[in-house]
From TrEMBL:
GO terms for biological process: phylloquinone biosynthetic process. It comes from the Eukaryota. Pfam families: Chorismate_bind. PANTHER family: ISOCHORISMATE SYNTHASE 2, CHLOROPLASTIC, PTHR47253. It comes from Durio zibethinus (Durian). The gene is LOC111312341. The lineage of its organism: Eukaryota, Viridiplantae, Streptophyta, Embryophyta, Tracheophyta. This is Isochorismate synthase 2, chloroplastic isoform X3. One of its GO terms (molecular function) is isochorismate synthase activity. Residues 290-456 form the Chorismate-utilising enzyme C-terminal domain. GO terms for cellular component: plastid.
Length: 482
């Protein structure tokens, strides 16, 4: 059985049962963000790893290394090279009591990371991230691929990343804090830019966690044990081993866990069909129903139109539970979203014994490198036109609409005000333009600034910035609408 949801996200979940029916729950919102949550309770097994949040972030780990082996023609040969390298690691105990080591093998052909992930065993924890490919001005995964031993991996940009297993993960039930951020940074180094932690943070960590999200906690990040990197004209397969005696996760245990994961990794990658399939819908249930939805909209408008109202914009959403006759593969679904969202980010995150959370969004909450930070404002929505002329007419209507201008200005100014509280100067360029996606278009603006000091990065992990960028005074709005 499967359940799903789409909301400003689309959220979906799958649970296996004796029947072949599939239940999908969707949260509907006018934004183009989509996310889907998928459960595999029957097949999930617990894989051992260490929780990096339980370590002392004040003490750096002993070593962070990247080692590059010779380039090979295929993933199968890369697997052979890495398995031999693991054998060599076993016979050479490192002198440090903690550390993280990445071994990587360049592959002389481009293979899509999502196709590699689709070929892997679904019982393993997994992650996937792909940047916005449709933008000609830059790639959102641009990195310096010179690693710790001075080897340049073909000098190409990273396109997508897929990973299985977790060398180290980071998860807590309390809201994400600066100490948690330091725990993650403890395992990262600018000298090894491809050692990365992929994950997600709850928008509202104060709310109760529903059952489908419990495996994620208030936040969940993972450094994969086995990672596949899709580059512009080639690929790379890598393994990572992390250990910390202080966390009761020794070198030997880390190597044993890596070997167990490698035994489940497939080296044969098959081309994935990125076509949406037509599913037979058995039933459809909206929560709230149309009557209660209309009442919620009416109530929100009444509050907004009241003189001296504290509300100027309210975002409402609903869920829809759809029962389909057959099951749906989450990675195949994500591949379809990748086609739909060429100008967006696609992601997948699945913790041990938990659901796979996948999504597609054109929005970047914020991006930070050193003291530079940037964000984006996006609001107002129109469909794309069937012809160039009609598309331009719709674009003009969106740009000239007073209602959409007000909605967009609220979002842009709220982000700008918050960035100005931690930055020396904030640039907004352009003030307002249109970003066109495959099926819809939005009002859009970019904001960038420089943090006053490195201490201001604390604000990036505390509620102050995240709440401001995600939503305006959510708790007060909820109280007013009750």
């Amino acid at each position: 059985m499967a359940a799903a949801a789409v909301a400003r996200h689309c959220l979906a979940r799958f649970t296996d049962s004796e029947t072949t029916k599939c239940t999908l729950s969707y949260f509907h919102h006018t934004s183009s963000r989509q996310s889907i949550q998928v459960f595999y309770n029957k097949y999930q097994v617990c894989t051992l790893s260490m929780n990096g949040c339980q370590g002392d972030s004040k003490f750096p780990i002993g070593t962070i290394e990247t080692r590059t082996l010779g380039a090979v023609p295929s993933p199968a040969v890369a697997m052979e090279r890495l398995n031999l390298a693991i054998g060599e690691l076993k016979s050479n105990l490192p002198p440090c009591s903690s550390g993280i080591i990445r071994l990587q093998v360049p592959i002389q052909q481009q293979i899509e990371a999502i196709e590699w992930l689709h070929a892997q065993d679904e019982i393993l924890p997994r992650c996937f991230f792909s940047g916005r490919r449709g933008r000609a001005n830059a790639s959102n995964l641009l990195i310096d691929t010179i690693n710790g031993n001075g080897y340049t991996s073909f000098g190409q940009n990273l396109v997508s990343v897929a990973g299985v297993g977790s060398a180290v993960f980071f998860r807590q039930l309390h809201p994400f804090s600066y100490d948690d951020w330091k725990s993650i940074k403890r395992f990262l180094s600018s000298k090894c830019p491809l050692i990365r932690a992929y994950g997600a943070i709850r928008f509202d960590a104060r709310a109760n966690i529903s059952s489908e999200w419990k495996a994620f906690g208030s936040f969940y990040f993972m450094v994969p044990q086995v990672e596949f990197d899709e580059l512009e004209e080639s690929s790379m397969l890598a393994i990572m081993v992390a250990w910390d005696d202080a966390l009761s996760w020794t070198w030997d245990e880390a190597i044993d866990s890596l070997e167990a994961t490698m035994q489940r990794v497939a080296s044969i990658v098959v081309k994935l069909r990125k076509e949406s399939s037509k599913e037979f819908i058995l039933s459809n249930n909206h929560i709230p129903n149309k009557t209660h939805w209309d009442l919620a909209v009416k109530r929100a408008l009444e509050i907004i139109n009241t003189s001296n109202s504290p509300l100027i914009k309210v975002v409402l959403a609903r869920s829809s539970k759809v029962l389909t006759a057959t099951n749906i593969d989450p990675i195949s679904w994500l591949a379809c979203l990748q086609v739909e969202g060429e100008n967006g980010y696609q992601f997948c995150l699945q913790p041990p014994n938990g659901p796979a959370f996948i999504g597609n969004t054109p929005e970047q909450l914020f991006h930070r490198k050193w003291l530079s930070i940037s964000s984006e404002a996006m609001a107002g929505t129109r469909a794309r036109g069937g012809s160039t002329t009609l598309d331009l007419e719709i674009e003009h209507d969106l740009l000239s609409s007073p209602k959409d201008h007000l909605e967009f200005t609220i979002v842009r100014e709220s982000i700008q005000n918050k960035l100005e509280s931690v930055c020396e100067r904030v640039a907004v360029e352009p003030k307002k333009t249109v970003r066109k996606l495959r099926r819809i278009q939005h009002l859009f603006s970019q904001l960038a600034g420089n943090l006053k000091t490195e201490d201001d990065e604390n604000c990036l992990t505390e509620e102050c910035l995240l709440d401001q960028l995600v939503g305006l005074e959510e708790e007060k709005v909820s109280l007013l609408l009750v």
